Amino acid sequence: MKDSGLKKPHIWQQILAVALSVYILFPFYLVVLNSFRKQTDIVANPVGWGGASFKQLLANLSNVVNNSNFRYWYAFGTSAIITIVSLILLAVFGGMAAWVISRNNKKKWAYAIYMVFIASMIIPFQVVMLPLISTFRDVGKFVGIQMLQSIPGIVFAYCGFGGAMTVFILTGFIKGIPYDLEEAASIDGCSPEGTFFRVILPLLKPVITTVTILNGMWIWNDYLLPSLMLGQNGKVKTLPVAVQAFVGSYVKQWDLILTSSLLAILPMIILFLFAQKQIMEGMVEGAVKG
User: Fold this and answer.
1) 114-152 burial, b if ≥16 CB within 10 A, otherwise e?
2) Each residue of 193-205: pLDDT tens digit?
3) pTM of the prediction?
4) E strand or H helix at 141, and its extent?
């Protein structure tokens, strides 16, 4: 049998990998396990299987979904709207920006804009979160639009924070697309806008899928930005903020708290399990073309 040239991992590396996997998955194990149990069983033994049943899971789900303090479907709809709209805007405008930058990469202004995008990726959110709130409040008063405690405001914020990574990944991919395709479209009478939407955007499908999934998991699971911009006591709440408010209302009801947490993270887990192949293919194809 021919040797592939790849070295097998040492036994200590395998042990370390298993230990890290257990460490990372243990909190998720607690959430799933205790969603199948009653409050009394959880308090008696948080890591045991005593009292776990599918019937109890259905009862916990019913109690959480129908609870007026949690308002699961309202929070789910809010998170879905914010995530979907943000992802569409990031894909379209991020793709446009990346296309313009990649096709003018030898010009100083394009290089400067690209460096601004790169620099924004290394600035911690904690540094800008307080200026962000005051800026959005002032801008909202100036343009007459409610930027805080509103869906348009937080979508605008997500487009700003997610635009850097989107442009960074798409720019490397577009550099590998032959310019001859755009010249042929121009000769056929296609406008710049038409060239982007008819030629460039379809070719970006693999890498846009990857960027969309990564941004989607981040936006859906994000807690800090919605809690700052929407407020924990406001009418507009995403699922992570609703779960936190639910914890405040039911400090000792661990069966309901953990079930609500499971409901919040379950959509992204399902998405990742079905889309992990597309994530890897998009990253590899983008790396090769970039």
Assistant:
1) beebeebeeeeeeeeeeebeeebeeebeeeeeebbebbe
2) 888 888 898 888 8
3) 0.85
4) helix 125-143
